[in-house]
């Protein structure tokens, strides 16, 4: 392969890596899961070193596109995806999935799912709430259990 590329005019070189996991090969779902686990560990470590509390980083999933404020607490089973933004002092989880949501400072979201929703400052969502795309929970509002938020 290297000889073929060189004969086609491609520049060939080498580099030393301190961490072999930087170039892991993925050929099946098991290997993909192992690479995802490594990326998750790095992402979670970065957030924890920046003041986010995670009770179990192995059970906390944060996309690299997510933004977390200061003093955020994430409980096990939390999944934050897409362009989710979590404000300062929030408590999220356990068992909560937020996709493309905006959560205001000091809000609490427990055992709930949110899709493209907005949660106001100091609001309390859940347990077992479902926020549909476009749903909004106002500042300091409480949803109560089994709430379904719909777009206005």
From TrEMBL:
<dbReference type="GO" id="GO:0009252">
    <property type="term" value="P:peptidoglycan biosynthetic process"/>
</dbReference>
<dbReference type="GO" id="GO:0046872">
    <property type="term" value="F:metal ion binding"/>
</dbReference>
<keyword id="KW-0573">Peptidoglycan synthesis</keyword>
<dbReference type="InterPro" id="IPR011004">
    <property type="entry name" value="Trimer_LpxA-like_sf"/>
</dbReference>
<dbReference type="GO" id="GO:0071555">
    <property type="term" value="P:cell wall organization"/>
</dbReference>
<keyword id="KW-0133">Cell shape</keyword>
<dbReference type="GO" id="GO:0003977">
    <property type="term" value="F:UDP-N-acetylglucosamine diphosphorylase activity"/>
</dbReference>
<dbReference type="GO" id="GO:0005737">
    <property type="term" value="C:cytoplasm"/>
</dbReference>
<keyword id="KW-0961">Cell wall biogenesis/degradation</keyword>
<keyword id="KW-0012">Acyltransferase</keyword>
<dbReference type="InterPro" id="IPR050065">
    <property type="entry name" value="GlmU-like"/>
</dbReference>
<comment type="similarity">
    <text>In the C-terminal section; belongs to the transferase hexapeptide repeat family.</text>
</comment>
<protein>
    <recommendedName>
        <fullName>UDP-N-acetylglucosamine diphosphorylase</fullName>
        <ecNumber>2.7.7.23</ecNumber>
    </recommendedName>
</protein>
<keyword id="KW-0963">Cytoplasm</keyword>
<keyword id="KW-0548">Nucleotidyltransferase</keyword>
<dbReference type="Pfam" id="PF00132">
    <property type="entry name" value="Hexapep"/>
</dbReference>
<dbReference type="InterPro" id="IPR001451">
    <property type="entry name" value="Hexapep"/>
</dbReference>
<dbReference type="GO" id="GO:0016746">
    <property type="term" value="F:acyltransferase activity"/>
</dbReference>
<keyword id="KW-0460">Magnesium</keyword>
<keyword id="KW-0808">Transferase</keyword>
<dbReference type="GO" id="GO:0008360">
    <property type="term" value="P:regulation of cell shape"/>
</dbReference>
<comment type="similarity">
    <text>In the N-terminal section; belongs to the N-acetylglucosamine-1-phosphate uridyltransferase family.</text>
</comment>
<keyword id="KW-0479">Metal-binding</keyword>
């Amino acid at each position: 392969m290297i000889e073929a590329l060189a004969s086609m005019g491609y520049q060939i070189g080498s580099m030393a890596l301190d961490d072999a996991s930087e170039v892991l090969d993925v050929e099946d779902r098991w290997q993909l899961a192992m690479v995802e686990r490594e990326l998750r560990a790095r992402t979670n470590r970065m957030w924890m070193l920046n003041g986010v509390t995670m009770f179990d980083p192995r059970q906390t999933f944060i996309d690299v596109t997510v933004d977390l404020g200061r003093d955020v607490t994430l409980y096990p089973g939390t999944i934050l995806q897409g362009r989710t933004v979590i404000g300062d002092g929030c408590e999220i989880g356990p068992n909560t999935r937020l996709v493309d949501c905006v959560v205001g400072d000091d809000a609490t979201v427990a055992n709930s799912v949110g899709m493209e929703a907005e949660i106001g400052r100091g609001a309390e969502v859940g347990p077992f709430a479902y926020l549909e795309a476009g749903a909004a929970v106002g500042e300091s509002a409480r949803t109560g259990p089994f709430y379904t938020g719909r777009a206005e």
